[in-house]
Amino acid sequence: MAGVCVVGAGYVGLATAVCLAELGHSVSCVEIEQRRLSLLRHGCAPIREPGLEEALKRLSRAARLRFTGSHTDALAGVSFTVLAVNTPAGSRGETDTSFVEDALRAIGNHIPRGSVLLLKSTVPPGTGDAIAAKMAPRAVDVVSNPEFLRQGSALEDFMRPDRIVIGGDSEAAMRAVQRLYSGIRAPVYYCSRRSAEMAKYTANAFLAARISLINEVAGICESTGADINEVSAIIGADRRIGPAFLGAGLGWGGSCLPKDLTALIDTASRYGRSHDMLEAVYRVNIGQRELACRHLALAGVGREDPSVAVLGLAFKPNTGDIRGSPALEIIAHLLEDGFRVTAHDPAAIDEAKSALPNIRYCSDAYSAARGSDAVLLATEWETYRTLDWNRIRRLMRGNTIVDGRNLLDGSGLTEAGFNYVAFGKPVANRSKGDAERVRPIAEPVAAGGGSNGNSATRATEKQR
Ligand SMILES: NC(=O)c1ccc[n+]([C@@H]2O[C@H](COP(=O)([O-])OP(=O)(O)OC[C@H]3O[C@@H](n4cnc5c(N)ncnc54)[C@H](O)[C@@H]3O)[C@@H](O)[C@H]2O)c1
């Protein structure tokens, strides 16, 4: 069993630290954010992930996992260092590698000679090679080991990955990394560092593309009278396609897909390569948010003090993370258009408050809906499926519900008196000429890496 230092105690760093300790390694995790560190030292999880807090307490008690604010302390005697710091989008959509550079400076003179440095942070192709050149005088081998876990099931995904990717140029170091993971059953791919780095960006671009494609098709379904849920189920049964990432609605978001897509566009443009498809994927996604705003705007037409209740702030269920959340982008847009906004989320309210202080946060969906002209269901939390919608209807001033995740029973809600709006369902009585009334949320990403159009997300990232 090995000594491992994990740098960064976020979603990826904590999952890595806990799971490697679970596999029997002795793990020290270094974190620079004081509040987060203090919570971790008391055995409390600073983020919401199933199973995390229980594992933190148990492994810390067993002295297999510890947390520190000192890089020197964390690195003492380890054979592996895992870099898991954040790599947010820069102002032009490029990858901001400054956290990686800071972390490398912090570990620089203390990383043990002859040890292996694993890069789990998502970084542009070529970054690992550059780091390897810098580490060579210390005889540290650098391996690109991208992470593919999903927030909301991070520990489970880490322990049961679809594959383990090990990119490097030293057979001995790559084998050592494979041994680090022994106990996890998954195909292992040996490749160059650059292929490992590209594979990570490509995977996220591909996932985003699937959703944008289905959303574009959803628009065609609305006009042709087809139902996108039925279409998705049918094409998802095709083994060449598969059922995941085929849900129509507000589109993709989160801490990774938006920034990784713009980063790939930036990389393509720096090498003078085409990125037309990647840009289209991005534009279609913005269009989905605009579509939601359009339906909500109609609900407010002619109303004094128009208001919208937003159900769901996290970018997806089972996480408190609001980075890249469609809900936040839409709320920012509604506020600019003079709407009053109330909101509920089972887990993300504390995080949302710092990014969007000017809305009213409610402890349940019913209080959020009270007096509103429209409800937007933005995150598919299971609890929203079973709400008493008749009660919500009575509490609202208007009757529009925009189901941004195609989650609810549309015919039941229509019978209950709602003006139910979903994505990719046949258009019955909606006016088709309203598109022109809506101004765009953001300019499409520019060639050469434009803004990711998400000021709320960037603001949050800076605060972290
Ligand atoms: N979140 C995901 O689902 C996911 C999945 C796969 C890959 N990734 C990639 O993994 C990386 C980390 O993502 P995340 O979501 O865990 O980020 P995060 O923001 O949740 O966590 C990063 C942590 O690193 C800490 N940190 C920053 N600089 C540090 C330093 N010098 N020393 C010690 N700690 C430092 C931060 O304070 C923060 O707690 C990113 O490159 C991301 O793209 C994320």
Classified in CATH, the superfamily of the largest domain is NAD(P)-binding Rossmann-like Domain
The DSSP helix count reads: 19
Quick check: average pLDDT? Answer: 92
Kindly give the count of domains: 2
Q: Please describe the biggest sheet, giving its number of strands, its sense, and whether it closes into a barrel.
A: 6 strands, parallel
Number of strands: 14
Q: Which class of secondary structure composition applies to the elements?
A: alpha/beta
Q: Based on the structure given, which CATH architecture of the largest domain is correct?
A: 3-Layer(aba) Sandwich
β-strand percent reads 5-15%
CATH topology of the largest domain: Rossmann fold
- Estimated radius of gyration: 23 Å
Distance between the termini: 33 Å
* Strand arrangement in the largest pleated sheet: 3-2-1-4-5-6
Bound molecules: nicotinamide-adenine-dinucleotide
Global morphology: globular
